[in-house]
Amino acid sequence: MSNYKKPKKHEALLWSVALPGFGQFLNRRYYKGSIFILLEFIVNAFANFNLAIIYSFTGEIQKAIDVTNFQWLMFYPCLYMFAMWDAYREAEGETNSYSYLPFVFGAFFVTIGLIYSTKLKIMGVLFGPVILPILFLVPGLSVGFIIYYILLKLRGKKK
């Protein structure tokens, strides 16, 4: 018998933030982790996401918009957030049935941010297909955590 100890939830989550699939590798889910890494590379390559990131962070927002394949990039938020949730859930044997909510709402809001990233200006500034979706993650996670805590409180009152 091995002395394998499951990683902490937040450790697996942060490795998945680094690259979808790394958290699964940490959890010894090698097949699933390989699939997530492969999907990440496919979506990233077909969406031209690395170029969009470079252009966005160097202030060339219109170039980021022009180079981005939005039909491919639309897959990215759900892939990314699902891989993070899966790694988080598998680590330490997560049993909370509502732990998915912040991840789902995060993916939803990031997708909405991506949809509006070519048109929506905040204080007159166009943020583009990388920065605006990142900004939309904050309210998405917030809504998800609020609903998560409300449901936990309601479940606690029923017992």
UniProtKB/TrEMBL annotation:
Keywords: Membrane, Transmembrane, Transmembrane helix. The chain crosses the membrane at residues 35-58, 70-88, 100-118, 130-151. It comes from the Bacteria. The keyword Transmembrane helix applies. This is DUF805 domain-containing protein. It comes from Metabacillus endolithicus.
